[in-house]
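Just curious: can you write whichever protein you like plus the matching structure tokens?

***
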Amino acid sequence: MPLSPLEHDRRYGELDQVIRAYTGQPADDTPDKPSHALTAYLRQTWHTRPWALAVAERQLREYADNPPGRLRLRLGEFYAIPDVGLPEAEIQQWLYCLADHIRHSIEQGEVPPMAAPATHWEWQTRFPELTQFLGGWFSQDMPDEFDDHDAAVDDYRTTTDPHLVARLVGELHELLALDLDEPDYALAVAELGMEVDPPAPYPPSAWLAFVAGRMSAPRADYGPGSGPQTDTP
């Protein structure tokens, strides 16, 4: 039978995070240099969950030492590594290579400096609530679900727990603090799941700043029979 969620996380949870970091990225690590994907994983994890690095190193090495045999394959009691573009015969050495890089980073204290996210995984891991907001309320279906961008923003604000709204505001300010060029902000919102353009005449950064201000404003207490009045951005 398949692994239970608890057993999966205990044995493979952080290994899975490492492998997810390679989504859309080449597994081109060498003994001398980690890939962009692994560097992104190291940067994000060092700055948010440094204790998890040792767990990742152990799980990678244990999986490479004991790849799933015939019985575990037949029972489904194993973690299936997604296709990362490497021949199956090279996967084991690649896992050892990743474990070696992570161990070196821990033992030498080599921490990638803070920077704008470099991969799809890093964008969405660094800005999880912004990913939920843009991907959930501003997908390609947004024009069919809401009258305009304002209506979508208001729907998120009124239907989402205030603690998550506050988290979103923080992530918006963190994204704006990266001080990217406008094309890079356009790339950022796309990586975070936005599938429609910001409303005219706003470029992405100005619209993100507007949304941050709107989410930060106190919620009005409307009396019976009245509804919130939306402002035109």
About this structure: The CA atoms of residues 161 and 167 lie 10 Å apart. Residues 5-108 form one domain.
